[in-house]
Each structure stands twice: as C-alpha cells, then as structure tokens.
Amino acid sequence: MFFNQKTKLLAIALLAVSVSVRAQKVDYSAKVERLLSQMTLEEKLGQLNQYSNASDQTGPITRNSDGQIDEIRKGRVGSMLNVRGAKNTRLLQQEALKSRLKIPMIFGQDVVHGYRVTFPLPLAEAASWDLEMIEKTARVAATEAAASGIQWTFAPMVDISRDARWGRVMEGAGEDTYLGSKIAVARVRGFQGKGIGQLDAVMACAKHFAAYGAAVAGRDYNSVDMSLRQLWQYYLPPFKAAVDAGAATLMNSFNDLNGTPATASAYLQRDILKGAWKFDGFVVSDWGSIGEMIPHGYAKDCKDAAEMAMNGGSDMDMESRCYIENLAVLLKEGKVKEAQINDAVRRILTKKFELGLFENPYRFSDEKREKQVLNSPAFREVARDMARKSIVLLKNEKQVLPLAKNLKTIALVGPLAKSNEDMKGFWSVDWGKNDQLVSLYEGVQAKVGNQAKLLYAQGCGVEDTSTQGFAQAVQAAQQADVVVMAVGEKYDMSGEGHSRSNIHLPGVQEELIKAIQATGKPVVVLVMGGRPLIFNWTADHVPAIAFTWWLGSEAGNAMADVLFGDYNPSGKLPMSFPRSEGQLPLYYNYLHTGRWPQNDSEKQYKSAYLDVSNSPRYAFGYGLSYTKFEYSDLKLSRKNMTDTDQIEVSFVLKNAGTREGEEVVQLYLRDVVAQPLRPVQELKDFRKVKLKAQETTQIRFVIDREKLAFYNDQLDWITQAGDFDLMIGAACNDIRLTDHFTLTK
Ligand code: GLC
Asked: What Gene3D superfamilies does the record point to (predicted)?
C-alpha cells in the first residue's frame, strides 16, 4: 500500500505550493458587459437555469429529462450538476457550444469529502482540528474533480449544528462557531487553491445559507426560529469567514428562517450577503428550493416563487425550472426588475470568465490528465494521514491500546468489521467500486496478518434484532488474545434526509458488546458513524473505545495504524456526545441560567432532568492520547486591558509520556457578567502541537478585542467592561490552567 518516498514528497510539495500562492484576480467586467449587451432575455434566463444529470439525481425528481439536450443547445441551461468525467462533460459542453452565443456551462458536483479518493467525513476531519490537513484534503479533492471536468463543488457545508439527530451534522464542522469558521476558511482555500481558473481548482460553495443546522428537533428541512442575535452570533460567522476567504458561490437553504424560506430572504441574500458583506459571487438555490416555496405555503405557484426568489436574491435556480418558465412574464409585469436579472447574469458570467471557460470551454475535460491524476497513491496517502488524525480515542483503561504487533490471535467482531461500503460515508462520490475502500479487517490484515491469526464473526446486523450470531462471535472471542469490535450505524443512516430520533447504537449491537465483554478478554470497541451516537453501557464497561466516524478510502489502514500504535490518536470531538436524545440540542457554550445544578444530585428547583445528567457523555474538545500532556506555568502579560490593548497568554506544554503525540490545546473565555447574557465558556483559540516524549514547548495566545466582542440586541458588535475568566485545557470540561483579567473601558 506504500509507494516510493519520491512521489510522496513530490505530491505533498505540489500541494503545499498550491495552497500558498494566490493568483491575481483579473477584471472581466468589460467582457461581461459586452456579452450581456448581446444577449436576448431568454439567453439571460438560460444562465440562471441549472439542471441535474437525469441519471444521478441528488434530490427529489422534479421533471423528466426529455428535451434537456435541446434546451442546452438553445442556451437555456447555464450549468449542470451530477455530470462526471472529462468525457461526459466535454460531450455536453459541445452541445452548449451549439447555442447562438456559445456560452459554456459550469459543471457542479457535491465533492464534499473527496472526489475519487474519499476522505473522512467533514465532521471527522473537524475532529482532527488540523487546519493544514483539512486544507490539503480539499486541495486533493479539487485537483481530482477539476481533472474530471468539474469546476464547482457544492462545499464546504458550514452549518453549525447542536443536534445530533440531524443527519447532516456529518457534513459540517460541528457545534462551535470559532472552530467552524476556521475550518470553513481552510476548506475554501483548499478547494480554490491559487484561484479559480487554475486547472487544479474548483469554485467553492459555502452552504446552506442560512441556519439550516438549527432545524427544530433535528429533523431535516424543518423550520428554524431564532433571534437575529443568535443568528449573527453563532450561525452566520462561518459564512462570513467563507466569503472573506473568497468563496466564489453560496448555496441557500431549504429551511424557512423565522417564517421566510431562506431562498426568498432578501434579508439574508441581499441585505447581508450582497450588501453588508459585499459578496461578488453568485447564489445558487438548493435543489428545487425555489419551487419548494409552494409546499412551504409561501408561494402560490411557480411564478409566485420565481418572483420571490429573484427579489430575495437567489441568482441561479437549481432544478425547479421556475426561473426559466416565469421570469420573462414577471419582468413584463414589472414584478421583477431587469437590473436584478442582469445582476444575476453578470455574477454568473464573471465566474465563467474567471474559470477560463470562454477561452477554452474544454480545458477541464481532458481525459489524459484525468487518468494521470485520479486515485494516485500519493493522494491515498493524504487520505490515510487525515483518517488517522480524525480518530478520537474516548477511553483506554488498563492500557489495552495500543495493541502489540506480536499478538497470536485477534478476533474482529461486529457488523462493520468487514464492511467496505460503509467506510465511504454519506455524500461520497459513489463509484460503485468498493475495492477503493479499505475495511477494518483488511487494514488489520495488512498490518499484522502475516504473524497474527485473524478470526472474524459478524455477531449481528447493524439494525436487525437477531442474536443468532452471538454464539459464534463469543466463540471467536474466546479463542483470541484480544477482540476488536466494529459497531455503529450504516453509512446512510446519517446524511441528507437521514435524521434519527433514536441515536443509540442500532439493533442489538450493545447486547453483542455485553456478550463479548463477558468473555473477560481485552476488548476494543470502534464506534463508526456520521454523528454523535449513544452507547452508555459500552462507555461504562468496555476498557478501550475509539470513535472512527466514516474514514473514507484508507479507513481500515488508518484504524490499524492507531490500533497498533503506528499513529498516536490526536482527535478531539467537534460535537458534544449526549447521554440521551432527551438532552438535545446539547452544546458546551450554554448560558448558566439562574438555577444551574452544581452537581448531578441537585435536582429540586434546578435546571436539570430527573432522569439524566445535564453533562454530555463525551464533551466538546475531548479526546485521549497514548501519551499524557502536562500544562503549566500560565502567564498573562497584563491583568487589565482596554479595547485597544492585547494580552499575551503563555504556558508550557509537556509531553510527559513515553511516545510522541499531538495535543490540541484549547483556549476558552467567559465574560462573567454581561447584557445580554454570555455563555459559561467559548472557544477562542486552539493549537495542535506535536511533541516528542518528554519534550516541552511554550504555547502563546493573544487576547484582543475580537476575542471579547459579541452582538447585542441591536446587532452591534460590542464589548462590555468587566471581568473575564480564562481557561486553557485539553477539552471544554478538562481545564488545566485558569486565570482572570478585566476589560476596562
Ligand atoms: C441537495 C443538498 C445540497 C446539494 C444539492 C445538490 O439537496 O441539500 O447540499 O449540494 O442538493 O446535490
């Protein structure tokens, strides 16, 4: 599985260069104006119209594909999605070039966590807290997609979410605004590289604008209702970060926000995005969301919906056909303005010029390059490295892990131990070839199969309730020196349209774990899934547990690297793991209330549940290592600051163990007294640091006004004089060093 050092260094050097230099942006406004002046109204509306490839729909079928080619030839289709491959995109582009003005199409695809090489889920990558690696995997994904005829990915998804019932948490960066904003920037930079138009770059698309992750009850597509202060404080910043990082496009969201579907929200798309934020790219509607304003009960028909969406600032219509079929009449009736249509067309044409598609419409559709670039060993090595870094070690008592490489017999037990398919996770680009996905069993076999005997027993299915397989699984365990279990969801039990009210381990998997644990053998449980899951008995009784998400192409190899200590796990949870669904939404940066319980026994007249603790099972920022880190010697350069001052914070981190490891040190602040209220803690900075055994280093953070500011009820970005608690730790609930300072006016 390894390859020579030279190709690895070359590939990584290439990637490193590509993320550093940014190409100068050319001004195409004169060319855009000249072309716009030649266009008929129908040709303009064609640019606002996007169709999916009929054979690879990623949403409800809204129409049959008859006549699609004819519409392309007439210039009535400005973009397509779900068309893959240099050959297929070239063939369709040739049809578009038969139109009167020969305006090329843009090809978009959900390259969410890899194109040909599949990376860990975005939520898993967020668990790495490794911004450089996150940028690198987006770079690889862009390089592969752009070699395959695609100029636009519908990623990064930057929706903050605090509710693990929502299936799409797998696609984002978790619950925290600061971490989510940093990751949004890393992914935009990775996708767009040195700038769109480069042959290894694709347009990014920050989605879903906005607040889609706050769907009531975690049920996908459900309503969102929140104060504007909440929206600005927690849900908009990752979008702003993506726009400031140069994201070429945004995608709006299916949800209504405070009674207005996002697709029709002029507040979001015109006032904030194109107004206050001066966004010069374009907004694409999410699949059919313009037409969906009819079932929302916001529009009476497609014409009504088109009027509201255009007035609301949606530029391109994905799949609903409401624009192409109604905007001409709406214009004639004076219900939409020509200036709005021209603005939308300008934004789209500008991106087509920037992509170089007018110079050479086929420049991304080069089959020779496609063959050279896709699925290279170097790219798979990046996938393996990212996968290792995404694994979160939740428990490791009696030093069960790492496993010795000279074990005689290892039992691999559980419904996911031999699964290839599930390793890809939701929103992978499906090649239908599971040989590209390394299973846990294959990874362990490649690592130690030449000296250890591997036993396998499925034990049970993921969801079925049959315990018939238990006996065989127990037998395998009894013959082994150690048991490694692979349990969790199926890959498609999270993702779009896959919310779940019950996020316990499905089926009888926890019963299987109990049966294996009862053998008395050392047991390691690997939990796999696209969201936080609940497995309380396992958490209480099994000595070694890791959460491995869905790790993509190199999943099995990465899990084996961690199991046998070739990589010391460094992941930290980007979302709180609940004890019960009843706690959801659950998040670490909560408000204290007037009655927060001091401990779990305090129930009466407290903001608490009678039947479960308020605390998460596993906290935001939590993750263990095979070594241990010590924090000491905290110093603040001053204990008082004004808005214009800064405080330098420094402390010493030591790897006090016997093996090299990486630690994610986290800085939290609390604004102790404020109006409106501020949370009990908020992540304000972090570093991922690699230290050799016994090595120490000094870590520095800077506290400035930006880290203290917040939105008031008037949506002003303010600070208030007062005291702040400073916390530095290995997790939000594992604080190692504390201090205080005061902001004076
Ligand atoms: C889907 C998703 C969106 C995706 C789009 C195109 O419904 O909501 O994230 O980019 O349609 O596949």
From this structure: Glycoside hydrolase family 3 C-terminal domain, Glycoside hydrolase, family 3, N-terminal domain, Immunoglobulins
Residue 310 CA to ligand 1 center (angstroms) comes to 20
618: DSSP letter: B
Asked if the structure places residue 390 within a domain, the reply is yes
The distance from CA 179 to its chain's CA centroid, rounded to whole angstroms, is 11
Burial class (CB in 10 A: 0-12, 13-18, 19+), 259: exposed
- Is residue 197 a contact partner of residue 356, using CB atoms and an 8 Å limit? yes
Q: Are the C-beta atoms of residues 22 and 195 closer than 8 Å to each other?
A: yes
Q: Note whether 310 and 268 are same-domain residues.
A: yes
CA 125/CA 131 separation, integer angstroms: 9
Range of the domain at 674: 629-743
Give the per-residue SS3 of 243-307: HHCCCCEEEECCCEECCEEHHHCHHHHHHHHHHHCCCCCEEECCCCCCCCHHHHCCCCCHHHHHH
CATH code, 667: 2.60.40.10
Ligand 1 pocket member 212 (CB < 6 A): no
Two tokens, residue 664: 């994610």
Calculate Rg over the CA atoms of the chain. Answer: 26
- How many A from CA of 428 to the centre of ligand 1? 12
Q: For 354-395, write each residue's pLDDT tens digit.
A: 999 999 999 999 999 999 999 999 999 999 999 999 999 999
* C-alpha distance across the termini of the chain, in Å: 60
Give yes or no for residue 152 CB within 6 A of ligand 1: no
What pLDDT, on a 0 to 100 scale, did the predictor assign at position 2? 36
pLDDT at 207 over 70: yes
* 208 cis-preceded (ω within 30 degrees of 0): yes
Q: Is residue 121 part of a domain?
A: no
Catalytic residues: 286
Residue 618's closest CA among 582, 573, 587, 583?
Answer: 573
- Is the CB of residue 144 below 6 angstroms from any atom belonging to ligand 1? no
